[in-house]
Specification:
Blueprint (H helix, E strand, L loop, with lengths): L3 E6 L1 H5 L1 H8 L1 E6 L1 H15 L4 E5 L2 E4 L10 E6 L3 E8 L2 E8 L3 H12 L4 H10 L7 E2 H4 L15 E3 L16 H27 L3 E5 L7 H14 L5 E5 L5 H13 L15 E5 L4 E5 L10 E4 L3
Parallel strand pairs: 1-2, 5-10, 10-11
Antiparallel strand pairs: 3-4, 3-11, 5-6, 6-7, 8-9, 12-13, 13-14
Helix pairs in contact: 3-9, 4-7, 5-7, 7-8
Bound molecules: adenosine-5'-diphosphate and the ligand CC(C)(COP(=O)(O)O)[C@@H](O)C(=O)NCCC(=O)O.
Length: 305
């Protein structure tokens, strides 16, 4: 069997390399995860029409991104954990921060606390939940009133899951949907806050949130947006990417160009839309056809030799 080599990234490219080789005779060419995330994000933000959008109060608004005025920005990738990367250009970046409280925390704690069998079920539950049942609000502490002097309204979460200490209840007394909702808010709020602080630290105006954790979920995006808005006192805005979960894969895919400059003719994107990233005989395609209505997916096809 011919030896196929695939560009791969992330921990899995290391963890499963032997398995791919043994079972499929496929070699994994390991591409750096941060580099791939940045390459993927830069490509999408420059080439895809209506890639970035804001999301607040259920309103999705596409952002006009000028490819010539993209940098610097903060890229926040929420996978199992969270990486925060300051991006200054193509291939120019620094991972400035991160947090271990990420998508894995939401899914892991959620699984333990609710017995949900999969991520989608847990996410779905959060739709119906009410976090006030479990979260301790400022009003719970201040007898129903705001703490206006320091800018905290009665409905602000004072302590995530804090009500569980005073309720004399057991886990079984809480509804899984309320637990899921509190958990989602806790994780999303925390990520939003740390991201904003890092943007502030480096004077970055734009924060793009991506990663498979987001999954276009309204409440997740809303919570992150509110957190960024709250902590920045309205100065900063969270932005999301339509192809949020595929930055790394896209970056790894695009590294074919770097790996095989002679054997592959990769066309530069001639215009922002429609996309025709690559064409290499019968080896690689990355295309998005037709007029954009904001809902297309990008198709990437890789053929081994
Ligand atoms: N169908 C799903 N199954 C499991 N996790 C999912 C799913 N959809 C979204 N997620 C979220 O994505 C996270 C993993 O993101 P991913 O980018 O794949 O991380 P990693 O790079 O660590 O593999 C999970 O921790 C979970 O929060
Ligand atoms: C180690 C990782 C880069 C791996 O990426 P992931 O698979 O989570 O997408 C990421 O989980 C991470 O940045 N964790 C946070 C570590 C920290 O800064 O505390």
């Amino acid at each position: 069997m011919a030896n196929i080599c695939l560009q791969a990234t992330g921990g899995g490219a290391y963890k499963f390399a032997d398995l791919f080789k043994e079972k499929l005779s496929v070699s994994l060419d390991k591409e750096d995860e941060m580099e791939c995330l940045v390459t993927g994000a830069n490509f999408l933000l420059k080439a895809v029409h209506q890639e970035a959008f804001t999301y607040l109060d259920g309103q999705k608004e596409f952002a006009q991104i000028d490819p010539n005025d993209l940098y610097p920005y903060l890229l926040v990738n929420i996978g199992s954990g969270v990486s925060m990367i300051k991006v200054d250009g193509d291939g120019k970046f620094e991972r400035v921060s991160g947090t271990s409280l990420g998508g894995g925390t939401f899914w892991g704690l959620g699984r333990l606390l609710t017995k949900c069998k999969n991520f989608d079920e847990l996410l779905e539950l959060s739709h119906q939940g009410n976090n006030r049942v479990i979260d301790m609000l400022v009003g719970d502490i201040y007898g129903g009133t705001d703490y206006a002097k320091i800018g905290l309204s009665a409905t602000t979460i004072a302590s995530s899951f804090g009500k569980a200490i005073s309720d004399n209840k057991e886990l079984v007394d809480y509804k899984p949907e309320d637990i899921s909702r509190s958990l989602l808010r806790m994780i999303s709020n925390n990520i939003g806050q740390i991201s904003y602080l890092n943007a502030l630290r480096f004077g970055l105006k734009r924060i793009f949130f991506a990663g498979f954790f987001i999954r276009g979920h309204a409440y997740t995006m809303d919570t992150i947006s509110v957190a960024v808005n709250f902590w920045s006192k309205g100065e900063a805005e969270a932005m999301f990417l339509r192809h949020e979960g595929f930055l790394g894969a896209l970056g790894a895919f695009m590294s074919y160009e770097k790996q095989c400059p002679d054997g592959l003719t990769v066309n530069k994107v001639p215009q922002r839309f429609p996309i025709s990233v690559s064409s290499a005989g019968n080896k690689i395609y990355c295309s998005m056809n037709g007029k954009s209505n904001g809902n297309e997916s990008i198709e990437c096809t890789v053929y081994g030799t």
